[in-house]
Amino acid sequence: VHTIPVGLLGLGNVGAGVVRLLADNDAAIAARLGARIEIRAAAVRDPQRPRQATLDAARLTTDPAAVCVDPAIRVVLEVMGGVEPARTLLLAAIAAGKHVVTANKHVLAEHGDEIFAAAAAARVNVYYEAAVCGGLPIIRALREGLASDRIQELVGIVNGTSNFILTAMADEGRPFDEVLRAAQAAGYAEADPSFDVDGIDAGHKLTLLTRLSFGTRLKPEQILCEGLRRVTPADLALAARFGYVIKPLAVADDDGRGVLARVHPALVPARDPLALCAGTMNAIKVTSAALGQSLYQGRGAGMMPTAVAVVADLIEVCRDLPTARAARGPGGGEAPAPGSPLPQARPLRDPGDLECRYYLRFAAADRPGVLAQVTRILGEHEISIWQLVQEGSPAPGSPAPVVVVTHPARERRVQAALALIDRLPVVASPTLLLRIQS
Amino acid sequence: VHTIPVGLLGLGNVGAGVVRLLADNDAAIAARLGARIEIRAAAVRDPQRPRQATLDAARLTTDPAAVCVDPAIRVVLEVMGGVEPARTLLLAAIAAGKHVVTANKHVLAEHGDEIFAAAAAARVNVYYEAAVCGGLPIIRALREGLASDRIQELVGIVNGTSNFILTAMADEGRPFDEVLRAAQAAGYAEADPSFDVDGIDAGHKLTLLTRLSFGTRLKPEQILCEGLRRVTPADLALAARFGYVIKPLAVADDDGRGVLARVHPALVPARDPLALCAGTMNAIKVTSAALGQSLYQGRGAGMMPTAVAVVADLIEVCRDLPTARAARGPGGGEAPAPGSPLPQARPLRDPGDLECRYYLRFAAADRPGVLAQVTRILGEHEISIWQLVQEGSPAPGSPAPVVVVTHPARERRVQAALALIDRLPVVASPTLLLRIQS
Questions:
Q1: CA-to-CA distance for B19 and A257, rounded, in angstroms?
Q2: Is the pLDDT of residue A118 over 80?
């Protein structure tokens, strides 16, 4: 059995998982692949640091650029994360004719065009299953399993930290800040949580999913993106009363006129599989023209789940090696070889065109006529009310939450109505808008 | 853009779906693949028969063997079903150096060893995503996405007809026979339903899943296989009272000592994703060492869902064509090239070793002391009772159903106890045994 030497950039959590998984399943992988995989070099910042991986110290190097151009190395695994130096190193490895496997959604979301184009020119592959939902093979499902079908909609829970926080808030009735601190203590959330709770991480993943599903090159900033910080336990309880669960969604759909991509918390019917996807789990519901609805659910983050995806990609790349340098459609439904036509990239549509039902929580003063003012403005914008709940105000004189669930309405009109409502003197703070995904 | 000529064996429901899907998504597939796919020849029994597919009559032939050896054809799609002549034709195509794509679980379950060995020798690929759960990319998930992980258990609903019948029985309280006739009228069940309702079809699929997940070569007759016919609406209602839904499961697990494969209706906790998989939907829950639990759900049968899988495989094979004849691990985790080591096939374990909780429905005469006899025999076999329900007998003197839910017990002991109980003069008919999957 011959050995395929690979290089590793980064030996943190995911990198250590890769080393461990390759060791644990060495014989099985060799049997499946007909070759052994060997980590020839691993680039780290500080070789002295204690690590979770047991890798021969002689394999460690502080020179990642040397790993990328090492003629003995066939495949480069990038698990360092972040934009730079990951971008420069990936491009160097590609230019040196290496296939690359990356777990880095951030660099692909921001520099995917450049990286995929370089790979196509060099006729090497870029695999990135680990960049979206960890070990859940959603990239494979879209890139291969549904390559024959036309995708119409993706609705997913792609950020485990956000899902953990909303699940805990709903189960325990505790506020966002408190649950976030608990998540940070448990290691489910970063010290700076904004990537997770403000939807940035989910936006990066959605950029990749949108490219793959619709051919659309989306800049992360083109995504309608809202975080979780304004959702309260009271919202979760009220949503439950209406038959919904609030979930951190990433959605992209093509309604025939174009693609709309958005990341925000949304109300999901309680019996929907996404409503039942709890804790740190991820799930993606895909609707395609011929297959209809399919669902993929699993652990989207963590050392070993992410390592599963990295090593699966590595095996896949190695399967192609004997015949390599003929890229199998590197990324994003990209054409497999220079000169082939580009995929039909679907145009973007304006987020204002979105039509759905809305959950609106107004912080209205507990005074006569306030409800009349709010509902009049909604009516003038052709937003009709399906249900309205006015809770008693918590203390005399303090704002009383009024919650409205609308019939389907146009985002543009809802935003215009809220701009007026939030300027009313009787409204104490900005209205909370949550979309209903049905 | 160049054209890849392929041959089609069979132009029934699935074949027509393949033709339609290729036509509908022609441009998108060409963009993804960098080549056009063209059905050069389609072998049918009767060219005059009206069909759902619009294919140039000149492409139809009644000579499938000629399609298999046609030098112009690169890939053969087998969608005729059944064991023969499918087996002979697949072997002929493989011998002629064609890659093959098949939707035929039956021929692979019974002759997979022969077909995969022939493909390995000829260095061509056998793709069969459509043979298990139609368009749901479960084969891809196991073969590629989890190639890096060690699979411990698969629990799936892999037969849509069975799931439809049990769902309708539960929802409408109607008996098996009546629901089966309705399913036949609606086209969800065949005139001869035994493949579906007796677990044969699920057994074929489980054979393929077991080979892929555990390397184990399983003959369909080695599967513990029980059908649905004895389940009644009363069982579904009682199960619901205990917090369960009865689902048609296919299960394979490796507990470290070996693999046990079984197909039977089972009680599933009401909150389990499998319990919520209703109607004709399929779902598979996979547990693997590093990723943990992942779930795949979608439409497992029907013209277009099955065609999605066939064409996805076709695209995959075509992606490899420029570099072809170096099989990418044809099937079953098989070694990719002659001479490589075989995967570690896990041994089988005895179904008697199964340990789980049981739902037992006794048809006991409504007479004093009967319950004592039944419970004494259970006790003597170390089967302890978790819950017991005795319903009033429907008419004076007629047998009264007694339902017992046990604590975890050993299958071997339960079967021994039932053999004695069913011989008691006070027991009117064989006890119904259902396993509880938790």
A1: 27
A2: yes
Q: Which is catalytic among the residues B105, B205, B247, B285?
A: B205
Q: Would the pLDDT of B339 be above 70?
A: no
Cα of first residue to Cα of last residue in chain A, in angstroms, is 53
Q: What is the pLDDT of residue B331?
A: 37
As given in the structure block, the two tokens for residue A127 are: 């695999």
Sign of CA dihedral A292, A298, A304, A306: positive
Asked if B434 contacts B411 with a C-beta cutoff of 8 angstroms, the reply is: no
Question: Which band of pLDDT confidence, cut at 50, 70 and 90, is reported for residue A365?
Answer: confident
Q: Are the beta carbons of A202 and A192 closer than 8 angstroms?
A: no
Could you tell me if A269 lies within 8 Å of chain B, comparing CB atoms? no
Question: Phi and psi of A229, rounded to 5°?
Answer: -60, -25
Cβ–Cβ below 8 Å for B297 and A273: yes
User: Cα-flanking dihedrals φ and ψ of residue A413, to 5°?
Assistant: -70, -40
**pLDDT attached to residue B34:** 80
- Inspect the interface and report whether the beta carbons of A146 and B137 lie closer than 8 Å: yes
β-strands A400-406, A385-390: how paired? antiparallel
Report chain A's C-alpha Rg in angstroms: 24
Token pair of A273, please?
A: 């599989």
Q: How far is A13 from chain B (nearest CA, A)?
A: 14
Pairing mode of beta strands B75-78, B60-61:
unpaired
Average per-residue pLDDT for chain B: 90
DSSP E strands: which ranges in B103-149? 126-127
Strand-by-strand arrangement of the B126-127 sheet:
B60-61, B35-43, B2-9, B75-78, B99-102, B126-127
Q: Do B309 and A28 touch (CB under 8 A)?
A: no
Which of A127, A7, A116, A22 minimizes the C-alpha distance to A64?
A7
Q: Decide if B31 and A333 are in contact by the 8 Å CB cutoff.
A: yes
Q: Say if A294 is an interface residue toward chain B (CB within 8 Å).
A: yes
**Is residue A398 packed enough to be buried (19+ CB in 10 Å), middle (13-18) or exposed (0-12)?**
exposed
- What pLDDT score does A346 carry? 85
Contact of B269 with chain A, judged by CB distance below 8 Å, is answered with no
Q: What is the mean pLDDT of residues B32-44?
A: 91
Residue B124, SS3 per DSSP:
coil
Shortest Cα–Cα distance, A46 to chain B (Å): 27
Cα–Cα distance for residue pair A434/A226, rounded to 1 Å: 10
- Match 């002991």 to its residue by tokens: B413
Residues of chain A neighbouring B310 (CB-CB closer than 8 A): 148
**CB A277 within 8 Å of CB B272:** no
Contact residues, B window 45-104, toward A, CB-based 8 Å cutoff: none
State in Å, rounded, how far the first CA of chain B is from the last one.
53
Interface check A309 vs B, CB under 8 A: yes
Tell me what pLDDT residue B397 has.
67
Asked if B198 and B248 count as a contact pair (C-beta separation under 8 A), the reply is no
| d(C-alpha B86, C-alpha B43), whole Å | 12
Residues of A with a catalytic annotation lie at 205
Using an 8 Å CB-CB cutoff, list chain B residues near A335: 31-32, 34
Interface test with B, best of A22, A26, A32, A274 (most B CBs within 10 A): A32
* Coil, strand or helix at B387: strand
Dump pLDDT digits (tens) for A220-265: 889 999 999 999 999 999 999 999 999 999 999 999 999 999 999 9
Q: What is the DSSP annotation of B326-349?
A: S-S--STT--SSTTSPPP-PPPB-
Bridge-based pairing of strands B281-288 and B292-299 is antiparallel
Average the pLDDT over each of A163-177, A305-319, A361-375, B388-402 and give the range with the smallest value.
B388-402
d(CA A253, CA A266): 15
Nearest alpha carbon to residue A35 among A82, A2, A12, A11: A2
- CB contacts under 8 A, A 128-157 vs B, are 129, 134-137, 140-141, 144-150
